[in-house]
UniProtKB/TrEMBL annotation:
Domain of life: Eukaryota
Region annotation Disordered: where it falls in the sequence: 12-53
Upper classification of the organism: Eukaryota, Metazoa, Chordata, Craniata, Vertebrata
Gene3D superfamilies linked: 3.30.420.40, Actin, Chain A, domain 4
Protein's name according to its UniProt entry: Heat shock protein family A (Hsp70) member 12B
Amino acid sequence: MLAVPEMGLQGLYIGSSPERSPVPSPPGSPRTQESCGIAPLTPSQSPKPEARAPQQASFSVVVAIDFGTTSSGYAFSFASDPEAIHMMRKWEGGDPGVAHQKTPTCLLLTPEGAFHSFGYTARDYYHDLDPEEARDWLYFEKFKMKIHSATDLTLKTQLEAVNGKTMPALEVFAHALRFFREHALQELREQSPLLPEKDTVRWVLTVPAIWKQPAKQFMREAAYLAGLVSRENAEQLLIALEPEAASVYCRKLRLHQLLDLSGRAPGGGRLGERRSIDSSFRQAREQLRRYRHSRTFLVESGVGELWAEMQAGDRYVVADCGGGTVDLTVHQLEQPHGTLKELYKASGGPYGAVGVDLAFEQLLCRIFGEDFIATFKRQRPAAWVDLTIAFEARKRTAGPHRAGALNISLPFSFIDFYRKQRGHNVETALRRSSVNFVKWSSQGMLRMSCEAMNELFQPTVSGIIQHIEALLARPEVQGVKLLFLVGGFAESAVLQHAVQAALGSRGLRVVVPHDVGLTILKGAVLFGQAPGVVRVRRSPLTYGVGVLNRFVPGRHPPEKLLVRDGRRWCTDVFERFVAAEQSVALGEEVRRSYCPARPGQRRVLINLYCCATEDARFITDPGVRKCGALSLELEPADCGQDTAGAPPGRREIRAAMQFGDTEIKVTAVDVSTNRSVRAAIDFLSN
C-alpha cells in the first residue's frame, strides 16, 4: 500500500505494497509496526504495538488544580510523602454554613480587562459595586461549560461576561489559572522555604473525561499562557480526567470513610480499621483462597461484605456529578499492583448542578416574563448574581424528606426594577402567573414549597440516572455491583436519594465518600504522583488519516478512482490508527513512517480524521470529520545535502503516537540520523 496524505503531497507515507519495498524494521520489532500496512492496536491474536514506559519528569511537589464549573481549588503533596495531601488555605469570605476549602469559579476583570480578583473576593467585590459602575466591569462565572459546549472551539473563541461584553476565552482561563499558580507557589514557599522554584512543581489540571481533544488542548494552552509550565517543559503539566482522579482516590479510602446509601456501613467492622480498599481487595482474595466459607470471616475481620462481594473482577463505576457535567467511568482493579483498567469509554453529558439553576431561571421567566428576566440580567448584572447566590444557599438545603417551605430572597433592585418596568409589583405578578407553588412572603421573599424545589432537580437528576442505567446495560460492564457517587453535586441529598431509589433495587451499592466535594481534587494529587496508575484506557473515537491506496476494481467504488502517472489509485481511504472503544495500554505506540515529498521540505503536515464508529472506509463517509493535523517540523540540516555534497536520499521520519494517555501524544525521529524531530498534533486549528 502506498499511503499519501490527502491534504496534498506535502509528505509521503512509506509502506509496503506490491509496487514498493517495505521500510526495513529494526531487529526484534514486529514487521507490521514499521510499514503502512500496520494494524493499529489490534486484538491479541495480531501483533501488538510496541509498549514504551512513559518518561517521568523530575519534580519535588505535585500541585493539582480542580478547575470546576461552580467551584475550584488546589491541593498539593510532596514527592517525599506523596499520600500526605495538603489542602489549600481556607478562602476569605464565603457563605455561612458552607465549607471554604474551595472558592467559586468567578473571575472579575476591570473595565480595561485587567485582572482584579477571583473567587469569593471577586464575587463580593462585584456585589458591592454601584449598579451603574458594575455595567463596565467584566464578571465571569460558570464559564468552564462554554468550552465543553463550543462545537468550533479555537484559540480565538470568545466568552461573554455577565454584562454582555466579550473577551478571548483563552485569556479568561489564563487569568484564573495564574491566580491559582500564584496562590499555590506562595503557600509552598511558606511551607518549604528551601524548595527551589524552577522545574520542581508538577502541575495537574482536571477536566471532564467526556471532553474532546480540542478542549483538553485548550486547557493546556491556557496553562502555558498563565505560566504554569513552558512549552519546552510540557511534561511538567498533566491533564487528569475527573472521574479517573476520583477513582484513584476512592481506591485509597479507608473503609470507615465511606457512606453507604443503603444504610449498611461499608466497613462492616471496627471503626479503627485502617486498611484501604485496594489492600482489602488483595487480603480478601487471599482469604477466599484459603477459606471456602470466608464471608463471615471477612466481616468479622473488618474487611466487610461490600468488598467481599467484589471478588469477581473487582469492578466499579464512578459517577462524577459536578457543577456542569456528569462523568461516568468504569474501572477494574488489577492485581498485584493495584493499577486500574478502564472497561468502557468515558460517558456522560451536561447534567450538572447548573441544570437546577437553569430550571430556577426558567421558573422566574414563567412568573415575571422572559423578556423582563433578560433585561434585568443585562441592566442589573450584579443584582442578578445576588439572586443566584440566594438561590444557591436554599438549593443546598433541599432534601427529599424536608418539611416546610423555602424562602428565597429577592434583591431590592429586582423588586424596584420590576415595578418600574411593568408598572405593578412582584406580588401582583405572582398572583397573575400560572405558577401556584410559589407564593409571596410578607418579608419580601419568594416562598417555595419543598415539592416545588425538588421538582427543579428532576430534569437534571433524571438525566444522571438515565446515563448510569444506560452504562450498566452495556455488556462490557456487566457484574458491576458498586457505584461511587462523587463531585460537588453528589453532596445533594436530593440526588443521593434519587440514585439510591433508582439503582439500589438492582443490587447496586451506592457509596459516597465523606469528603465527596474534594474527592477529585485529592485524587488529582495522587494521580500526579503516579500517573501510571490507570494502565489501560478505552479510546472514545476512531482516529486515522486519509491516504491513497492502489485501486482494486470491485472493492473500491469507481468514483474514488484517481489516475496519476499511469497508475490507478483509490483516493480518500480512511487509514485507521486506533478504533473507538478499543483498549489501549499506557505507553503503547502506533508507528507510521513519512517521507518529505521534496528535498529541502521543512514541514510535513497530515490531516487527522475521527469518527464514532470503527467501520468507516473513507474519510468522506458519514460521521467522519477532520479533527486535527499532525505536523512534523524538519530542521534545516535535516533537509539539505549531506556533507559530501551529494543529493540526499529518501528521508524517513518515523512518528510514534500514543492513544492510551489522557491526551493523544506524538513523538518523531529522523531514522537516518536518529535525531528527534519536533512533532505535534493540533486539534484547535480547524
